[in-house]
Amino acid sequence: MTVAELKKSLKNLAEPKRAEVLLRFFQTQKGGYGEGDKFLGVTVPNQRKVAKKFDTLTSPDLKKLLQSSIHEHRLTSLFIMIHQFERGNHKQKKQLIDLYKNNLRYVNNWDLVDSSAPYLLGNFLRTRSKNILYQYARSPNLWRRRVGILSTFGFIKQGEYKDALAIANILLNDEHDLIHKAVGWMLREIGKRDKEELVAFLDKHYDTMPRTMLRYAIEKLNQKERAHYMK
Fold it and tell me: How many CB atoms lie within 10 A of CB 80?
């Protein structure tokens, strides 16, 4: 299996009309958060099928895909990296994490972040230092900040909320809507598992939180509780 064969497989699954929709959906216009990105129009389920077929690609091959200007090449590369990470030994996992971190500038849209950060960094860092996530949370780069908070989903799923709450606190005054949504989402996930943790955070910050962040965070609370926090 080669990179060229993978690209051909994706090209054969391309849907030009879908690509046109995706260009608008991911705001690829000048000044948009996805400015300049290119799409083939391949559905995510089909990309996952291709990733499964080519999941023995080498790290140099994955790097080539991850650095492609084509969005589906990058996402499929990330799917393969996750497959390899899940079955890899410690050395292999470390190599994949290094590949991910060293090419993070190509993980440059919300779907790329959300499909990879919790499953790579989120799983790898559970028993390791989380310092790099705090660095990402303070980055001027939108996507690194989103990686910082989304990676904590891996911890949240294991009932570990400290770092997610701390990074949420760092991002409370972030100006970008995509960070408001991401932080609110992670807070909601905490609340689904431990309502007291969510309520304690909300009681301290709800009056200064961006409204989108707050709405996402309280989505699973009852009507009376939602009304209290939105007043």
Answer: 25
Instruction: Kindly report, residue by residue over 141-155, the tens digit of the pLDDT.
Output: 999 999 999 999 999
Quote the pLDDT of residue 231: 81
Domain boundaries of the chain, sorted by first residue: 1-116, 131-231
Is the domain spanning 131-231 CATH 1.10.150.450? The answer is no
Classify domain 1-116 by CATH number.
1.25.10.90
97, 123 Cβ separation under 8 angstroms: no
Q: Does 131-231 match 1-116 at the fold level?
A: yes
Quickly count: other Cβ atoms within 10 Å of residue 200's Cβ.
12
**Could you tell me which residues come within 8 angstroms of residue 39 by beta carbon, excluding any fewer than 6 positions away?**
18, 19, 22, 23, 26, 28, 70, 71, 72
Give the span between the Cα atoms of 111 and 174, in whole angstroms. 19
Using pLDDT thresholds of 50, 70 and 90, give the confidence band for residue 101.
Answer: very high
Helical ranges in 88-222 per DSSP H: 90-102, 110-114, 121-124, 131-137, 142-150, 153-156, 162-170, 177-193, 195-205, 211-217
> How do residues 201-225 score in pLDDT, each as one tens digit?
999 999 999 999 999 999 999 999 9
Sign of the Cα torsion 31, 33, 37, 40 reads negative
Task: Say what the pLDDT of residue 171 is.
Answer: 98
